[in-house]
Amino acid sequence: MYTCRKTITVIVLSAWIMSCRTAHELPLPPRPPQAVSGNAFYRQVDSMKWNTREPIALKEILSGNVPAFLRKLVPVHTSITGANGKTITATYYVTPDYLSIGGNDDFARIPLTPMTAQLIADSLQCFLPTRKMVNDIYLAAKVKPEPVPLYAFRDSAIIFWHHHMIIEGQRKGEKGLIAGIKKDVVISSKVSRDPRPERVAIYGWHKPDGKPIQPLYTGHVNWYVDYSHGIRLVYRKIKVDKQWMDYTEVLRHPVYKTLLCDEDECDYFRYGQ
Predict the structure, then answer these.
(1) For residues 225 and 76, what is the distance between their CA atoms, to the nearest angstrom?
(2) Which residues of the chain fall below pLDDT 70?
(3) What residues have CB less than 8 Å from 64, skipping those under 6 apart?
(4) Distance (Å, whole) CA 210 – CA 70
(5) How far apart are CA 197 and CA 202, in angstroms?
(6) Three-state DSSP class for 243?
(7) Strands (E) located in 140-242
(8) Beta strand pairing status for 229-230 and 183-186?
(9) Which of 12, 32, 139, 157 has the most CB atoms in a 10 Å sphere around its CB?
(10) Residue 78: what pLDDT?
(11) Pick from 197, 201, 179, 194: which is nearest to 270 by CA?
(12) Whole-angstrom Cα distance, residue 150 to residue 23?
């Protein structure tokens, strides 16, 4: 009996620790000792098309080949005023940078299609941000390099790597929440309401004046991805007035949804729904 109670206690304690851990850290395995660097990954996939490259990126990320700094989620705070004049607050947790492969000293940011991004988000108890969240993340960011557009071979791995290196040159080792360096792949009702099938929604790439280069846009087919796209993960549990709620509950709520979404409709929760 004692052994049974002890086992149950350990299971409950482990579940509690995991729930706390996942709120502030991506639930990934440790980075494998022989994992490839970001540079090596791009050399490996240099001449590959997206549909060959992305399964490799998916495997690398879910196996734990992600820098330690990216695993630690950071809070973003927002608030609205209810009809009764009461302030309603919310806090959600986001990756401090865009999804990357490698270690702290040898990583590379990896643009991905929404299909692969959604698989990763689902596996890590996360979701992709909305347009409003991208704006709020930019306001909260400590590091805001000026966007650097490129024009040739935009969808090639070599340009993905080149753009990453440009950002690193701008960042100059500064640490903290970074924004304004990519267009976010976002969830948006425009995806489900676009008469064209298989769309991806992108938004952001803010300039120093706070205005985004990219308005909310669903003009690309969902398998298109270029150097300017970035994947920001958000932990799926949102703290609304000190109460944890799933992001889908928040987006369905007639009042709370405006904490996360500024569109007329906020009913698109994930790619593939």
Answers:
(1) 27
(2) 1-23
(3) 28, 29, 30, 31, 32, 35
(4) 24
(5) 16
(6) strand
(7) 183-186, 199-206, 212-221, 229-230, 234-235, 237-240
(8) parallel
(9) 157
(10) 98
(11) 201
(12) 36
Torsional sign, CA 175, 179, 180, 181? positive
Q: Where are the beta strands (DSSP E) in 7-73?
A: none
Dihedral sign for Cα 149, 154, 157, 158, please.
Answer: negative
What's the residue count for the chain? 273
Sign of CA dihedral 112, 102, 179, 182: negative
Distance between the two ends of the chain, CA-based, in angstroms? 46
SS3 272: coil
Q: Look at residue 116 in the predicted model and tell me its pLDDT.
A: 98
Pairing of strands 126-127, 234-235: antiparallel
Amino acid letter for position 218: T
Q: If phi over 0 gives left and psi between -120 and 50 gives alpha, with beta otherwise, what is residue 114?
A: alpha
Burial pattern 150-160, b for ≥16 Cβ within 10 A else e, equals eeeebebbebb
Instruction: Name the helix (H) or strand (E) containing 119.
Output: helix 114-123
**Residue showing tokens 């698109």:** 268
Predicted confidence (pLDDT) per residue in 70-93, tens digit: 999 999 999 999 888 899 999 999
d(CA 70, CA 25): 9
Give the Cα-Cα-Cα angle 78, 80, 86 (nearest 5 degrees): 125
